[in-house]
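Readers of this paper often ask what the protein records in our data store actually look like. Such a record has a labelled line for the sequence and another for the backbone structure tokens. Nothing more is needed to write down the fold, since each code stands for a local backbone conformation. The remainder of this section carries one protein's record, kept here as part of the documentation.
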Amino acid sequence: MLKGERKKKYTADDYMQLEEGAPFQLINYDLIMSPSPIPFHQQIVFALSEIIVLYNIKIGRKGQWMYAPSDVKFDEGNVLQPDILYIAEERKLELIKERIEGAPDLVIEILSPSTAYYDLRQKKNIYEKYGVKEYIIIDPIEQSAELYALKDGIYYQHQKAQNNEGLNSKLLPGFSIDLSSLFK
């Protein structure tokens, strides 16, 4: 992995030495490798990007949307690559550097067999701990989505939507995900 050396714990500095585009995330000081997403995952990302573009047209572009792979450094043991993230306009200069440093305002993860455990447990805990205001989990198998909102430093499930329902952001007025458009 890193120059033939096997460590028990890796740091953000170790992570930054990896080849650009390497399929790793640093989660709780462990290098976690995952294969490329399956085509259905990527189709969902594309459908979400269309929803995001229409939303930006409607409200006028405010804030910054980014797609994986984009490194988000939370601390020395956690550099994650959310599928989609949003940073509010007033926080762009604070967070966007050579990499994103600090908690985005909103994160969207699309579950895959190889990443579901991390998305639902470890990454969710990291997002909560560092103050990601909204966390949306899209489940292609169940054809559902859950929106977790941060209140007093703890996530609560704000909304759960099924295959033909809409999921409505609490953070971004007017931002709604029509699930039927995701699971065609």
Remarks:
- The chain has a mean pLDDT of 90.
- DSSP finds five helices and 13 strands in the chain.
